[in-house]
From TrEMBL:
Residues 1-63 are annotated as: Disordered. This is Probable calcium-binding protein CML48. Keywords: Calcium. Residues 1-12 have a biased composition (Polar residues). The keyword Calcium applies. GO terms for molecular function: calcium ion binding. It comes from Herrania umbratica. The lineage of its organism: Eukaryota, Viridiplantae, Streptophyta, Embryophyta, Tracheophyta. SUPFAM superfamilies: EF-hand (SSF47473). InterPro entries: CML48/49/50, EF-hand-dom_pair, EF_Hand_1_Ca_BS, EF_hand_dom. Signal peptide: none annotated. The keyword Calcium applies. Residues 37-62 have a biased composition (Low complexity).
């Protein structure tokens, strides 16, 4: 199974897409994607291991040093109870202030991937800052492959975008991914940024979960039934 090139094992932000993807067993490269959206900084490799031990106390939102004021404003705008955490509906409103209005299905997937380790239904300021920065980087990838500047990408452009990130997705899998957005009109299926993020995060998230079971990067792993279900079901629920 092919893996992404240039990702930390815990980061959902893409790295430099200029080089062809490596095979799954090759050594992982360090993130070097420097796109900076709205002044935010990409999460570091040690982000998740650090933030699990540095949670802000309720009522005292703690953002990473250097977080852009726009990110802080977007969070505080929806955190009306000043708890320091936001739920999926608040996240949807917050992201709408800087990007577009994401489908609640995409929001739930982002919540699952960036969730607070102590509360799976909410995210805090550190998670929010990482998510915002990640979306900025995915936006750069989307715009790179939206060659006709239509605001949408088709199946081939999706294939090329995922390939640039290190995912040589089989055509059959691509068809399954994009079929979710087929309205039955007979027209060519195209994805907007919202749908692109959803597809990309599903591929990225499942790959990361698989890599946890394949620490030597052999391209194969043995899973129990329980492990398989615990990996796949959250993505299916988000994608439903």
């Amino acid at each position: 199974m092919d893996s992404s090139r240039g990702y930390s094992s815990h980061s959902y932000a893409p790295s430099a897409p200029e080089l062809p993807p490596q095979s799954y067993g090759q050594q992982q490269q360090q993130d070097n994607y420097s796109y900076n959206h709205h002044g935010g900084s990409p999460p570091s490799h040690s982000y998740y291991s650090q933030h699990q031990q540095q949670q802000p106390s309720y009522g005292q939102p703690s953002f990473p040093a250097g977080t852009h004021a726009e990110v802080i404003r977007a969070f505080e705008m929806v955190d009306r109870d000043r708890s320091g955490f936001i739920d999926e509906n608040e996240l949807q409103r917050a992201l709408s202030s800087g990007y577009q209005r994401f489908n609640i299905r995409t929001i739930r997937l982002l919540m699952f991937l960036f969730k607070n380790p102590h509360d799976s239904l909410k995210i805090g300021p550190k998670e929010f800052a990482a998510l915002w920065s990640c979306l900025g980087q995915w936006r750069a990838i989307f715009e790179r492959f939206d060659r006709d500047r239509s605001g949408k990408i088709d199946l081939m452009e999706l294939r090329d975008a995922l390939y640039s990130l290190g995912y040589a997705i089989p055509p059959s899998v691509l068809q399954v991914l994009i079929s979710k957005y087929d309205n039955g009109s007979g027209r060519k299926v195209e994805l907007n940024f919202d749908s692109f993020v959803e597809c990309g995060m599903i591929v990225k998230g499942l790959t990361e979960k698989f890599k946890e079971k394949d620490p030597r990067y052999t391209g194969s792993a043995t899973l129990t039934y329980d492990s398989f279900m615990s990996i796949v079901i959250p993505f299916l629920v988000s994608y439903d």
